[in-house]
Each structure stands twice: as structure tokens, then as C-alpha cells.
TrEMBL record:
Organism: Amphiprion ocellaris (Clown anemonefish)
GO molecular function, one term: metal ion binding
Name of this protein: Baculoviral IAP repeat containing 5a
Repeat in keyword set: no
Gene3D superfamilies, per database record: Inhibitor Of Apoptosis Protein (2mihbC-IAP-1), Chain A
Amino acid sequence: MEPFNEEYIKMYFYENRLKTFEGWPFDEDCTCTPENMAKAGFIHTPSENSPDIAMCFFCLKELEGWEPEDDPEKEHKSHSSSCHFISLKKKVEELTVEEFFKLQKERHKFIINKSCNEAITKFEDAAKLRRAEIIKTAMGEE
Ligand SMILES: [Zn+2]
């Protein structure tokens, strides 16, 4: 699901985040249960090779390689200390409209940041490839 999508707003709510953790590899006798993951703002975003990727719906920080004893809240704070959601003092349901819009503005900054970084990486990869092609052509002509 694209973070800019309107539907994504529902990820502000714990129950909706929890629903994404179907097939999460950690369930019993561990700290990173689906409940604790969802409480800490994570949604489950598995890929074909990594079933344990989780991403904060707010700051879009992705974490994988979870260990059963990992505390989702602590992990979130230590890997993304600027996330507004994890340091929120109130429940989402208790926010005023103004507070909510402020929060949304901050979330958009994270989204823009991430998509810019992805575009830069894509460009750099393309440039690297092109450079290699040019060198190859130049060498071949010698
Ligand atoms: Zn976050």
C-alpha cells in the first residue's frame, strides 16, 4: 500500500495495523508479538525472501532480522528517534483535530524524504550502469 494513499490513514489505528501481521513469524513466548509490533506503530510488510520485515506506518522506517526477545518499542525508538508517532504521549483517539493535522504534516515529510531518497538511489544506479557501458564501449574501441 502506498503511504500517500488515503486508505493509509487507517494505519493510525492499532487494530488495522494488527491485521497486517498475518503470517508474522513470532507469536508465542517472545517480545515481538504481533500485538507489541502493532502497538509500537509497525505494520507487516513482508517480501518473498524476508517474512519478517516490518515498517513504521508513520516514519516508514523498515526493520528486519527480528529476534524473539526484541522489544518493538525500544527497537523503533533506537532506529528512528525522530519518529513522532513512537514518542506520542496520547492515544491517537485522544488527539485534537489540530494535533492530528500537525502529525499528518510530519508524516508527509517522512514520505517525501523517503521517495526523494529512492529517486536519488535509482538515478545513481542508472548512472553507474551507463558509466560502465561507456567505459566498455571506449575500451572496445581501443
Ligand atoms: Zn516510526
